[in-house]
Design a protein that fits this description.
This protein is α/β, with parallel strands linked by helices. It is built from six helices and five strands; from the N terminus they run βαβαβααβαβα.
């Protein structure tokens, strides 16, 4: 994988997830944002620079400014050519089954992982990139 975009407002989770991703060697670039709005700003910048988006977005649900569902609603408005190869995995502490069901209703969401991220979950991510 070239780029992973990690969107989570929890500093400790971001730090741990970055370390797990770095140790795995599956990504050459990890971009971290603390809100859905920041994630959209990153995507805007990549699209405007005519640079490929991330291959995987790890997205938390509960965040200030813009939550994960707000991000997903805005994400689907991007041009299909830009987002068609981006896979989103919800990575959240939410144990609410309705959050999982709602997340998976979005075509761009390929899976729902409960925190924390692990090596096994990273291996699962590899199958989505080859889609």
């Amino acid at each position: 994988m070239k780029k992973i975009l990690l969107i989570d407002d929890d500093h400790v989770s971001n730090f741990i997830n970055q370390k797990i991703i770095q140790r795995s060697g599956i990504s050459s670039e990890i971009i971290v944002c603390k809100s859905g709005r920041c994630g959209l700003d990153i995507l805007d910048n990549l699209m405007n620079a005519e640079t490929a988006g991330p291959e995987i977005i790890l997205l938390d649900i509960n965040m200030p400014i813009m939550d994960g569902f707000g991000f997903l609603d805005e994400f689907k408005k991007y041009p299909p050519a830009f987002i068609q190869d981006i896979k989103i995995v919800m990575l959240t502490s939410s144990l609410n089954e309705s959050d999982k069901i709602r997340s998976l209703e979005y075509d761009c969401v390929v899976d729902f992982f409960n925190k924390p991220l692990s090596q096994d979950k990273l291996i699962e991510l590899g199958k989505f990139v080859s889609c």
